[in-house]
Amino acid sequence: MENSLNIYNFSVDHAKKFGLEEAIMIFNLKFWIEKNAANRVNIHNNNVWTYNSARAFSELFPFWSRHKISRVLESLEKQNVLCRFAKSISRICNTYTR
Description:
The protein has about 100 residues and is α+β, with helices and mostly antiparallel strands. The protein has helices at about 10-20, 20-40, 55-60, 65-80; strands spanning about 45, 45-55, 85, 95. It has a 4-stranded antiparallel sheet with strand order 1-2-4-3. Helix 2 crosses helix 4 (about 65-80). The chain starts with 11 loop residues before the first helix and ends with a strand.
């Protein structure tokens, strides 16, 4: 049986608009943001947030280097898809909302 962690999804519309790698990241972050919203956690300034460390992102996306992950997240920020929470949980975590 295939490990579900080895399956990645994305929206074709997001891939066309933002890029394939960005679409893969959006799908992952969207899942966590929606889960947090449903559980009413990580809500600040009326926005639902999610966060992850560089190490955790590297484990979630083993086919990307940490540098690639940083570039994908920066691309999404520049395209106004994500915004970084001003007060990070810690120095090694990245916190994002939609």
